[in-house]
Amino acid sequence: MTFPTPTSSPPPLHLIIIGAGICGLATAISSAQTGLHVTVFEAASPLHEIGAGMQITPNGTRILRSLGVSTDLEPLAAVPDALTIHRYSGERLVCRKNYRKEIEEGFGSPICCLHRVDLHQTLARRARDLGVDIWLGVRIRDVEFEGPSIRLDDGQVVKGDVVLAADGLWSSTRNLLLGEPTPPKPTGDLAYRILLDAKDIEDLELREWITKPALHIWLGPKSHVVGYSIRGGQMYNLVLLCPDDLPAGVSKAEGDLEEMRELFEGWDPM
Questions:
Q1: What is the value of pTM for the model shown?
Q2: Which one of 26, 42, 125, 265 is at 20 to 30 Å from 203 when CA atoms are compared?
């Protein structure tokens, strides 16, 4: 009887990810969990994420659990107990007092409200714990899609088996793939983002809006507002959305407080 000659296992596939944002790091973690060799390249140094609050619905929180970050995120998150939808002037249109229970029983996972920075930093730690190589402060000059490989600004070439572009809305990798500039298309919306810290709020009733997590939505003419707690009920994220009036080519600018007040004059003062 002849037995096959034992052979060594092939090396794991090398996945190159361009961009260490939330998408890039989540992909890096899930790929490393399956045994892939993962290297992430990020232009920023040090690694940081900007922005404010974000809501993650049950399909997303299930993924976070599978990535192994739920335990670390739990003290940083706020899970809304209730949902209230208001007319812009303040009248309640819908109120679901058992919202948390309804969501968890209906979908098997909660809605989670987080600060983007907390999620990003937690994903970065988890990726590194799994052995993901994260290169910071490096820019990609070119991508060889047939190879595949990437060429860094210093001329160094890094080869892999798969190159994944996760370099965001203004992706330079997308431009290289399509061979032409591909700027994002404006949505027509503009968002004012406000973060409030509970310790800075002296009014006890207003402070409870922060310390007792709930989801609030105000609907009005051509605009709407969303508010919810983050960081375990220590901060409040408020987003006011209205038609975009920024000059052409401008995607971000410092908010004008007086202009915002004029746009939302007559709205619920809370």
A1: 0.91
A2: 265
